Amino acid sequence: MKTWSLHKRSVHPSTSPVHARRGGFSLVEVLMAIGIVAISVLTVVGLLPHGLEVSRQTADIAYKTRIFQQIASEYQAMPWNVATGDASRSIRREFDYQGAAVRAGVESVPTYIAEAEVVDGAVTLPTTGGGLANDNLRRLVVRIATSSDPRFTFNDSVKSKLVSVYSTLLARSN
Hints:
This protein has 2 helices and 8 strands, in the order E-E-H-H-E-E-E-E-E-E. By secondary structure, it is an alpha+beta fold. It is elongated.
């Protein structure tokens, strides 16, 4: 057994004043740790609704972009006289909550309503001297609304917050 000498006295290590305190945490230390953890958890829980809303908005933008790309590629694949003709100048489609087209005759509640229109007239391209009209280009405007009402109309200004507008150019290919 080992002994230490303090002021010329022999002291056993287990009875030394240095070792009299047992290991562990005091009540104050435990309460402070619990307080820090509680504040951290409340902060994370407070951020969850905002994070979920941002996630929902991001998914909504992704689905609308997918719908726009689908309609634009459909128009690009059409022959020029069909895409710019009166019959297909304006189309209306319904899409489900993931941006997939709802087929006619299938029982499904649409989440997105899309309306595409080819704008009349040549597109004027900007140049240094003003503008240059190009008869080989037409503007395609696609309006997409978040609505489960199949009778939704895009003319209602009250519902304009529900509508996203996308635009692209269609080019004639020879």
